[in-house]
Specification:
Layout lengths: L4 E6 L4 H16 L8 E6 L5 H16 L5 H8 L2 E5 L5 H13 L6 E6 L6 H10 L10 E6 L6 H14 L5 E4 L6 H11 L13 E9 L8 H26 L8 H13 L9 H4 E7 L1 E3 L2 E3 L17 E7 L9 E7 L6 E8 L19 E7 L3 E9 L7 E7 L12 H11 L8 H19 L6 E4 L31
Parallel strand pairs: 1-2, 1-4, 2-3, 4-5, 5-6, 7-12, 8-17
Antiparallel strand pairs: 7-13, 8-11, 9-10, 11-12, 13-14, 14-15, 15-16
Helix pairs in contact: 1-2, 1-3, 1-11, 5-6, 6-12, 8-9, 8-12, 9-12
Length: 496
């Protein structure tokens, strides 16, 4: 049973609240998963009252859900909504907010504070809450939720961490990465540790390399202000892709509690071989999308996007080669790749196994056997597949590749959205799918040498046409010529 709480959203009128948080909370309420007495409190600069806030949220949900919106469920959800007009720069309003929360009979004693704000405002928001004691766990619990990016680089992340810990303890802080709420990402853990058959295969003896890809056909859209300061490496690899690497590479935890799970993820991140400055270009590659065609439509290049500096060398594509120096993974390359304006949307973990040690079929009609692959689709496919070789029926010895699908590929019915799953964990106080401070720091330590090198290389950046799979030059980070990018689940797409 979840405790009733006040779910307070700072920046409640912004894009994240509109497109992710309010739809997720509505769906949870519709499914009967929220505590009956829970309140959703929006905090923002606009001069709105409860009625106006409820009308606005109703419009957002209508636009997003259309005909699937349940009017009875919407009315129930609207009754939970309250609004408090404030600016976190106004210290007096912190005391007023405390009075409202303490004296309002409809407000439970437990509080979630969700910072749906630009990262530059996290420190100010934490100080704002502490000013009137809203961080203190006297009559109930207090939880602070912060979105990535957790800092701009290693040093900034460390400063942010110290600022948050000045007012909140580690057990109160929930660093949310919505990728960890995705169904297949959560399934990686069960798939690995609930099936004994994989453990003998999950190591340097049988695995050739691991690829983790996140590709998007969209450009930066209206996020130029953010993207010009972030780039693909900070935006995706340092957070989402490093988390997937940790789940693939981690050792079995001692127990299923949050700290044991996060201990093993940190151990995996700490074991990543540091990249010296002289080796950055051998381990990392960046590029920027130019004009091209997607879905038979001309799309602009990055430098043609609104509010982008015409001399910008911000990367929209980044590829990285990492090694994990421990007993299990020594000398197995992990290839991480992300990009905007690529051929299609896809998030995929592709694990390639080594070739058999002896070519038994060289005297048959089988010319060469492709390697086995284990594929974990994050989106749009949410599926786990293994590719194996079988004999084709008929005369002679011929082989073909077939795929073995996990049953999750065909599961019907409603599944929790990533945000829905993670918001429930926040209310329930479960840290398992959230990042710990040392986890964030070690992920930054991996990419920080690359960021520092790229930050001073402003004269040139490789380009790739929009609608492609990125620049061919990115292949130079592969360890061998027979290693190539795997773009999708399709068997025909598999590199040979």
């Amino acid at each position: 049973m979840l405790d009733a709480c006040v779910f307070t959203i700072f920046g409640s009128t912004g894009h994240l609240s509109r497109t992710k948080l309010m739809p997720a909370l509505y769906q949870l309420d519709k499914a009967g998963r929220l505590p009956a007495a829970m309140v959703v409190l929006g905090v923002g600069r606009r001069d709105w009252d409860n009625s106006h806030w409820r009308d606005e949220v109703s419009k957002w949900l209508e636009e997003r859900l259309g005909s699937t919106l349940d009017r009875d469920a919407l009315e129930r959800f609207s009754n939970r909504l309250h609004f408090f007009s404030a600016d976190i720069g106004d210290t007096d309003s912190s005391v007023q907010l405390r009075q409202v929360l303490d004296t309002g009979p409809e407000f439970p004693p437990n509080h979630v504070y969700y910072l749906s704000l630009p990262p530059s405002e996290y420190k100010a928001a934490a100080d704002y809450l502490a000013l009137s004691g809203l961080n203190q766990e006297v009559a109930g619990w207090r939880r602070l939720v912060v979105e990535k990016p957790f800092g701009y680089d290693l040093e900034d992340a460390q400063v942010l961490d110290r600022c948050l810990h000045r007012n909140f303890t580690e057990h109160q802080i929930f660093r949310i990465d919505h990728y960890l709420g995705k169904e297949t990402v959560q399934n990686i853990f069960v798939f690995r540790f609930a099936n004994l058959m994989w453990e003998p295969l999950w190591n340097r003896n049988l695995i050739d390399h691991v690829q983790i890809t996140h590709s998007e056909s969209a450009g930066i859209e209206d996020r130029a202000d953010y993207y010009e300061t972030a780039g693909a490496l900070r935006d995706m690899i340092q957070s989402h892709l490093m988390q997937m690497l940790a789940l693939v590479a981690m050792e079995p935890p001692a127990t299923m509690d949050a700290e044991s799970i996060r201990d093993e993820k940190v151990k995996a991140l700490k074991s990543i071989r540091p990249i010296p400055k002289a080796a950055v270009h051998a381990h990392a590659f960046r590029a920027q999308y130019a004009r091209g065609r997607i879905d038979n439509q001309e799309v602009p290049g990055y430098l043609d996007e609104k509010q982008v500096d015409k001399q910008s060398t911000t990367e929209t594509y980044a590829a990285l080669k990492l090694y994990i120096d421990n007993w299990r993974w020594r000398n197995v390359p992990f290839y991480l790749r992300t990009g905007k304006r690529l051929a299609r949307n896809s998030s995929l973990i592709a694990i390639r196994f080594k070739h058999p040690p002896q070519q038994l079929f060289r005297e048959t009609q089988i010319e060469a056997l492709p390697p086995n692959w284990l594929l974990m689709g994050i989106q749009p496919e949410q599926c786990i597949r293994a590719e194996v070789q079988v004999r084709e029926p008929g005369i002679g010895m011929r082989a073909r590749t077939t795929q073995l699908d996990a049953s999750t590929c065909y599961q019907a019915g409603y599944q929790l959205d990533a945000y829905e799953s993670l918001l429930l964990d926040v209310i329930g106080g479960d840290h398992s799918q959230f990042l710990r401070s040392d986890e964030v720091e070690w992920a930054w330590r991996v990419v920080d040498p690359i960021i520092r090198t790229w930050s001073v290389e402003r004269e040139f950046i490789h380009t790739y046409p929009a609608g492609s799979w990125g620049p061919e030059e990115a292949d130079r980070i592969f360890e061998r010529e027979d290693q190539q990018w795997r773009h999708s689940f399709s068997t025909g797409d598999a590199p040979r």
